[in-house]
# Entry
Amino acid sequence: MTQLTDLPPTTDLPQPTAGRTAPLLPALTQLTLAELRRMLRNPMFAAGTVGFPILFFALFGLPAVREVTEGGVSVGQIILVRFGIYSLLSLAMFSFGSGIAAERVGGWLRLLRASPMPSALFFAAKVLAALLFSTLALAALYAFAHFAGGVTMGAGLALLTLGKLLLGMVPLIALGLAVGFVANPQAAQITAQLVSVIMAFASGLFIPFEGLPSFVRGLAPWLPAYHLGQIGVGTVAGQGAQEPGHWLALLAFTAVFGLVALRGMQRDESREG
# Structure
C-alpha cells in the first residue's frame, strides 16, 4: 500500500502569495449588502429598530404632535427626532453589541482574520450597512409621523437633521463595538437591552428632559444619546448655539468607546496567538 510519505513531492502546485489582499471596493460592496440582508431577514431586529420607535410614536407622540412650544417649535418634530434617535441607539446596540459578540465567539471574526480580507474592511461594511439601515428606519418613522400625525419638515431641514443624526450615531456604534468585544453573547444581549432603554429614558428621549428627576438630569450629560438629542432638537428648533459643545462631547465618547473596543479586539487576537 502506498504511503503518503512515499509519494514524490509536487512542485507544480501554486504557492501562497504573500500579502494577498481582496479587491477592496467589490469586497466592501458585497460585505455591505450581506450585512443589510442579514438585518432585513431578522424580524426581531427589524421590530426592535423600526417597529418599536413607530409604536412608541403612535402611543406617546401622536396625542401631542399638533402642539407648539412657547418658542413656536412644533412638538411633533421634536418627538419625531427623539424617537428617531432611540431607533439609532437600538440599532447600534443590537447590531454592534450583541451582533459582534455572537460573531466573535462563533469564530466568524477569526475566520475573517485568516482570510485575505482586511479586518478594517469588514467593520467599514458593518458601519455602512448600519447607516443605510438607519436611513430606512428614520424614513419609515418620518412617513408614519407624516401620514398619521401630519408632522412635516421641509426638505432642507429634513436632510440636515438626517445628516446630523447619522453622524451623531458614530459614538453609539463605538459603544456597541465596546460591548460586543468585552461581553459574551448572552451578557451582550442583556446589556444591549438595558443600555438602549435606560439611556433613552435618562437622555430625555421618551419624556421631555425637563420632566426627568433631578438626579437623572445630572446624569444625562454623561450619556452620548443626550448630546445627540440636544443636537437634533436644536436643529429643528433653529437653536445651534450649544451645538459645538455637544459635538465635542460626542467626539470624546467616540474616542473612549473606540479605545475600549480596540483593546477588546486586541485581547481576542492575542488569545488566538
User: Anything to note?
Assistant: Confidence is low (pLDDT under 50) at residues 1-5. DSSP finds eleven helices and no strands in the chain.
